[in-house]
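re: ur question from earlier - yeah i can do the single chain one, its not a big deal. heres the input i used so u can compare w yours
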Amino acid sequence: MAMEGDGCSLCSRAVAELEKIADTLKCSSGSTLCKGKTKVAKYSRPILMQHYPLYRESDSVCTESDAPLSRRNLFEERWDCLSKESTEYLIESLLPRAAFGAHTHNSCLIRHSLVPRPEHKIEFVEYTVPSFSWRNRLDPKYYLLTVTPYEVKVAKCELTREVTIQVTAVLLILALVVYIQYYNTRSYRHLSDKQV
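and the output i got, formated as tokens:
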């Protein structure tokens, strides 16, 4: 949320920190663009996680989307997704192997293949994490991740629909009422038989 490029104090600090991280990653990868001396012991391309998804025109570019047809409308930069400039800056600075965002409450999968410089090609997958709340959608979902230094595996899992839980609760209550009625009737008959 601090990547709007509007010069606010939070944004300036975020950009400065991002540049430090980007330089550490460049030094760790053996890049000739390294300016500092800080390195990580075992380098692997980073995973980018943020609230907003990276720039895209709409959910219609997603290869796996569960967005309703109304969400296929054009996105507004800096409202529904990061700006195009901020997206390019993050990707070129960090060279991520995967990116995770949210905000839209709908899942989305996009395979990016960018060539910012002729000698450099960046390929990664972006996942937009769906909402895990029945308040935001009728079919909440979540992701399970398996992350290694060289691989990211993602499994999308679904919760049951809220109406399924409600119908199950009603059926269980009815079953309980029937059982209690049966038990009470049986107990009453058993007592009546003993008294006779």
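The beta strands are 47-49, 98-101, 108-117, 120-128, 141-147, 152-158. not sure if urs matches, ping me
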